[in-house]
Design a protein that fits this description.
three-stranded antiparallel beta sheet; alpha+beta
Length: 86
């Protein structure tokens, strides 16, 4: 990150009931990750057993809050789509 005296890091894990839903959600997140990572924030994503794991590193609290908010908002969209499919 930059020359700040601290760095904020966190992990967000979204758990699913099956691998197919996890894979579909993961594939949907991938194009968004490049837009979510910014100068002050780095976001990486990986698959867990039945989950998606986001690792966030930010150089300040405002950037961190924005990154978490973006992940949560995209998760809400995925949640609504899964409800429509059922």
């Amino acid at each position: 990150m930059d020359n700040n005296k601290f760095e904020i890091s966190s992990k967000i894990e979204i758990k699913f009931t099956d691998e197919t839903t996890r894979d579909n959600s993961y594939d949907s997140y991938i194009p968004e990750i490049t837009q979510l990572s910014r100068k002050r924030t780095k976001i990486s994503i990986k698959k867990g057993e039945k989950s998606i794991i986001f690792n966030i590193e930010s150089s300040d609290f405002t950037a961190f809050r924005a990154a978490v908010s973006d992940i949560v908002n995209f998760g809400k969209i995925m949640e609504k789509e899964l409800k429509l499919i059922k």
